[in-house]
# Entry
Amino acid sequence: MVKNKDPFAALRFPEFLSLISGNLVITAALLIQEVLLGYELYKITKNPLILGLIGLAEALPYISLALFGGHFADKMDKKKIMKWSLTVIIFCSIVLVYVFKIRTDITENQLLLLVFGFICIIGFAKGFYNPAASSLKAFLTPREVYSNAASWGSTFWQVGAVLGPGIAGFLYAQIGLVSTLNFVVFLLILNFFIISTITKKGLISEQTSDKNIWQSIREGFDFVFNSKILFYSISLDLVAVLFGGVVAILPVFAEDILKVGPQGLGILRAAPSLGAILTIFATTIISPTDKAWRNMIIAVTGFGLATLVFAISTNFILSVVMLFFTGAFDSISVVIRQTILQVVPPEHMRGRVVSVNSIFVTSSNEIGAFESGLAASLFGTVPSVLLGGGFTIIIIIIVFLKSKELMNLKL
# Structure
């Protein structure tokens, strides 16, 4: 690892700071919403598969539109795309507040249908919002600080990921479900005003505008699959999150295994992100992009091992510590991958490359949530996590053996 000359370099660009501040706010808001909906629906149904279906309801629409979102992010005003998408997310969140206000007047099946339906629409909107936001980032800082920008962008995202789950359980206990969902709406509106302060639109690519949408999307896929560092980094993260993630079924651990209630659930959900924040902050000073692939392999291996220990733990403190380490190791791979996404693709293709990355990595959080819920319902909670963590370690070994030529790569 190498020491950065100016650890705060990227933060000296106000519009970049606005963008990542907005990302912090929307991340916290949507995670509060996710935690509350998951916990409430699990309390109602006592079925861990419901937790997986929440993730699937958002992931499937996201996957179906992310590639188109990447095409339009390369072709159109990125800020305008973000604002329209966010408007849809705000509307859906307001409707979810109303749904739980009339909870006693509707059946359980009607409640589930409405919640899943509006989560789907949020997934559609994120399919446009995320590629636009990710590709705009590169236009707000000079190329020489991309690695530092990736660290700070990930840090702000992780702060949101800590605050969201961390305060969700406490807000639920103190002010109730509906009031907390109203707070989510407030945060989303706040993000709308934050991103409105950004004046740069990002590149409107002439190289994209003369191609039809299918040619444009295929170019993005071809670029990713022909770049070893992109393909292997996406593959590793996909497997780790898809099979090694446990976040979606933490309500089961909180309620039935560790017996710590909603406040304990908040701590469990916040632990990975707290580990990530501290580690990512360290990467703003000491960059992991020197010998990036070696560090990536080490980080994903550490993530898998910490997951295995968490699976067999019945002690709340040990469980929190292991989740902390999953976040710490994962954050290193996130910084490396985000730097790759900024440095490797040419400017006119960055939105499409980001969208390809999103359908395999970002959406893997939601697909992984479904896999976790389904596996827990089929094999039991602890055995399903052990199987997922073990499979992750096996895939890491295979990828390592196939990618030795990347071990000394510097970004």
User: Anything to note?
Assistant: Residues 205-209 have pLDDT under 50 and may be disordered. Residues 91 and 185 are 9 Å apart (CA to CA). The beta strands are 2-3, 286-287. The longest strand covers residues 2-3.
